[in-house]
Amino acid sequence: MFTSQLIEKFRQLPTPFYYYDLDLLRQTLARITEHGLAKGYQVHFAIKANFNIEILNIIREAGLGVDCVSGREIERSIKAGFRPEQIAFAGVGKTDEEIRIGLDTEIYSFNCESIQELEVLNRLAHENNKMASVSIRLNPNVEANTHRYITTGLHENKFGINPGKLPLLFDLIPRLENIRLNGIHFHIGSQITELRPFIDLCNRVNSLQNLFEEKGFLLEHVNLGGGFGINYEDPDSEPVPDFKSFFEVFDRNLEIRDGQQVHFELGRSIVGQCGSLISKVLFIKDGINTDFAIIDAGMTELIRPALYQASHRVDVLTSSKPPKTYDVVGPICESSDTFQRGIRLPELERGDLVAIRSAGAYGEVMSSGFNLRDRVKAVYSHDLD
Ligand SMILES: *Cc1c(COP(=O)(O)O)cnc(C)c1O
Predict the structure, then answer these.
(1) How far is the CA of 50 from the centre of ligand 1 (A)?
(2) Which residue(s) pair with 222 in the sheet?
(3) Distance (Å, rounded) from C-alpha 349 to C-alpha 18?
(4) Could you say which DSSP state residue 280 is in?
(5) What is the biggest distance separating any 2 CA atoms in the chain, rounded to whole angstroms?
(6) Quick one: which of 100, 200, 298, 350 has the fewest CB in 10 Å?
(7) Are 60 and 282 a contacting pair, CB within 8 Å?
(8) Residue closest to 144 by CA, chosen among 133, 156, 134
(9) Which stretches of the chain drop beneath a pLDDT of 70?
């Protein structure tokens, strides 16, 4: 992935920075087109995974829509050239101001997560003389087998409406005059690397859709959310996730009505592998069991290891010496500011460059100014051509 020419260019740049391989992003989108869009599936990019305009432009050109979880994300999407009818808006805690942004923008769908939200949306829509298109987010109680901080589809999670509330909902919806129910929505978690949870989801959706139909609600669309995982251990073996297998699960298991649209919201699987965090070794310190390689990127640039015990592969770009054992750590005053423990890497010295891989999703967007550090910058492959 990193040619010697590219590494020479990295040496000229101030570190740390995010490097985005836009060719890989295009290849990923081509696979989504081939196995998803070409079958009539609609795919929304979960903009929270990466909201850089350059990235959004490429995703928009590929024909995807967006999935937003805040009012500012709706504004950013419009700024990036997405059309209102390509925008879905999810989130358990939408503020009145954010709801008004969605109403003013006339987005495709508010994905509503509670009964009270539906009532508030109806009132705000009435006050603003609008009809809100609504998709009900249901909690399907499906085990996603992923880290518990990124599981969202179990009863214990805060997301979605519990299907036990459906009788109440069926009674309420016809009375909400400024709301048009157009779909049901699900999202069971993130970094799901097996297909089984998606098969379980299809089965749940099929039976829930029947319940809606029995009550006379015909749904224009079904939205299955996102969550498809990527290969963090060995990104070079799978730079583009296996979208063929992913979409085939839905071809085979989802019961779709005539003319019904099927939507997805993918984040990580679209942008995860195209981004790397490039960082420089500041110091090497002898430890008792392993040596510490202290680098100039930390949890302020990439918080996933500290937040979810996530493991990102670390590649050494500028040394091919015999390996030694290192803990690769950042400069922040937190012990969780550690990228890898006890890994074998070519011997490092001050000034060597490393690439922290698979950092294109939930990386730069979660960067912070903790310790008053400068906000991390982005560099795109075409800038270095
Ligand atoms: C975060 C999120 C997604 C995207 O999840 P990925 O794991 O990045 O694919 C999709 N839908 C909703 C509602 C989300 O909150």
Answers:
(1) 11
(2) 184, 262
(3) 22
(4) E
(5) 71
(6) 350
(7) no
(8) 156
(9) 149-150, 153-154
Helix (H) or strand (E) holding 32: helix 22-35
| Amino acid making up residue 215 | K
Cβ-Cβ contacts under 8 Å for 172 (sequence gap 6 or more): 115, 118, 119
Residue ranges per structural domain of the chain: 4-16+273-384, 23-272
Superfamily name with CATH number, domain 23-272: Alanine racemase (3.20.20.10)
8 A C-beta contact, residue 315 and residue 366: no
Q: What is the pLDDT of residues 307-365, one digit of tens each?
A: 999 999 999 999 999 999 999 999 999 889 999 999 999 999 999 999 999 999 999 99
User: Which neighbouring-strand residues pair with 283?
Assistant: 294
CB contact at 8 A, 240 and 24: yes
Ramachandran assignment for 360, one of left (phi > 0), alpha (psi -120 to 50 degrees), beta (any other): alpha
For a pocket test of ligand 1, which of 139, 265, 274 has the largest count of ligand atoms closer than 8 A to its C-beta? 265
Closest by Cα among 41, 107, 42 to 70? 107
The span from the CA of 76 to the CA of 81, in Å, is: 9
- Closest ligand 1 atom to 267 CA: 8
User: Who lines ligand 1 at CB under 6 A?
Assistant: 46, 48-49, 67, 69, 90, 187, 190, 225-228, 265-269, 361
Please give the distance, rounded to the nearest whole angstrom, from the Cα atom of residue 270 to the centre of ligand 1.
11
Domain 4-16+273-384, what fold? Lyase, Ornithine Decarboxylase; Chain A, domain 1 (2.40.37)
Q: Which atom of ligand 1 is nearest to the CA of 69?
A: 15
